[in-house]
Amino acid sequence: MPSAGVSGDHCRALAWTVDHDLRCAGVGGPFVNGSTDSDPDATLFEWFDTRDPNHGAIGMARSALAGQSCSGVIEWNGCAWDVSYRPVLGPDGTIAGALALAVPADPPGAPDETRYRRLYENAPLAAFAIGAHGRVIEASGRAGRMVGAEPVGREFVRLFADESAGRPRVEDALQRLRDGESVENCEALVRAADGTTYWVSLSGVPVFDADGHVSELRLVALAIDDRKRTERELRESEERARTLLDGLPDAVCVHVDGVVRYANPRAADLFGAPSSAALEGLAVVELICPEYVPIVRERMRRLLAGAPRQGLLRLRLKRTDGDVFEGETADIRVSYGKETAIAVVVRDLSDRQELEEQLRRSQRLGAVGELAGGLAHDFNNLLTVIHGYASLLAERPSSAFVAEITKAAQRAAELTRRLLALGRREEHTPEVFAPAEVLERAEPVLRSVVEDDIELLVDIHDEQARVLLDRGEFEQVVLNLVSNARDAMPRGGRLTVSTGVREHDGVRRFVLAVADTGQGMDEATRARVLEPFFTTKPDGTGLGLATVQAIVTRAGGDITVQSEPRRGTIIAAFFPLAGEDAEVADPVAEPSLDELRGTGTILLVDDEPMVRDLVTEILRGAGYAVLAAHSAKEALELAAAREGPFRAAIIDVVLPDESGAELARQLRERRPDLAVLFMSGYGASQVRAKGVGEDAAFLKKPYRAAELLAAVRGVSRIGMADSL
Question: What's the domain count of the chain?
Answer without folding.
Answer: 6
